[in-house]
Design brief:
Keywords: Signal. This is Nicotinic acid mononucleotide adenyltransferase. There is one protein chain. The chain is mainly β. The chain is built from 4 helices and 16 strands. The N terminus is likely disordered.
Length: 315
């Protein structure tokens, strides 16, 4: 995570980017118009980063590698992605990690992903910095917004998705408790885990002490958690842990760095610090295999039929 001085609200405004194009061709969302005056490869390379606007997705199915990515980049036939928030903005000089290769011709994009294998898309230019990737094999469209690294707000994306950041470690170990603060039940909780996949809101806690390998932690409790916003401060969040046997635990959540968080408990006045153990790279695990529980970005609205009509047969 790095700080970008040029900040904006991330609502896409095409006028901000028209300087990057000469005579852009606007293609109707569902009725492809004339072919762009530039090649598809030139279009994909106009921007260094393509942000996957997950809530604009149309269709009932998923293309896995797009569902987990925050950004993708097309670089000389190599596909890069930012799938993790740990190291976001720094990893791969901001591009993330290489996740496959691609071939672009006419209006077709063929991707050869290291996990998902072969995926093919029809590409439509929606406006000067937005493209649609339509997968004819699952009738689902993803919409990508183009940015340069210099004007992409890495911090905004990071703090808007803290929910996923918490899932990027196998466990969070309590490494500091403030000397001030009233004694309370949470003092005995030494490890937290935020689970990816499933209902995407499940956590576990443990009272184990000094466990070197996160796989050896005995989890005493499983419950639900929620991350909330605080009005007027995007860097401060709330974290609520649902403990049935001693009520909910409410905290103010701050990210200290890519591997450490601070939890302030207003009711007791206690400050805790937790350090991430066992970083999970959402592509492969430490053994080079696909992680069993993939973090998948969740679509926040009701899914809808895709009006896009395929122009070629399923591959």
């Amino acid at each position: 995570m790095r700080t970008i001085k040029l900040l904006f609200a991330f609502a896409i405004s095409a006028t901000l980017f028209t300087s990057c194009y000469t005579d852009p061709i606007i293609v109707d969302n569902y009725n492809p118009g004339p072919a762009p005056s530039i090649s598809l490869n030139q279009l994909l390379n106009r921007y260094e980063l393509w942000y996957v606007d997950i809530n604009e997705t149309i269709g009932y199915n998923e293309t896995p590698f797009l569902q987990i990515a925050f950004t993708i980049s097309f670089r000389n036939g190599n596909l890069f992605a930012n799938n993790n928030l740990v190291g976001f903005g720094d990893q791969g000089n901001g591009f993330g990690i290489q996740t496959g290769t691609y071939d672009a011709y006419n209006n077709i994009l063929d991707v050869y992903h290291v996990i998902d294998g072969y995926q093919t898309f029809d590409v439509y230019q929606i406006d000067s910095n937005t493209i649609e990737l339509y997968n004819p094999n699952n009738d689902t469209s993803y919409f990508l917004d183009g940015y340069q690294r210099s004007n992409f707000d890495y911090d905004y994306v990071f703090y808007d998705n803290i929910h996923y950041f918490l899932q990027e470690y196998e466990a969070w170990e309590k490494t500091y408790t403030s000397p001030t603060g009233a004694p309370n039940e949470f003092d005995y909780e030494n490890y937290l885990q935020f689970l990816a996949g499933g209902n995407d809101s499940e956590f576990r806690s443990s009272q184990d002490v000094n466990v070197y390998n996160p796989n050896n932690i005995f989890w005493d409790y499983t419950g639900l958690y929620n991350v909330g916003n605080i009005s007027g401060n995007r860097y401060l969040k709330t974290l609520t842990l649902d403990y049935d046997y001693f009520a909910d635990e409410f905290f103010e959540l701050r990210v200290l760095n890519d591997a450490k968080i601070e939890l302030y408990q207003p009711t007791s006045g206690t400050v805790y610090e937790f350090t991430g153990r066992g970083y999970i790279q959402f592509l492969k695990n430490a053994e080079g295999k696909q992680t069993e529980q993939l973090k998948k970005r969740k679509f926040k609205a009701e899914k809808q039929d895709n009006p896009r009509e395929p122009i070629r047969e399923k591959i």
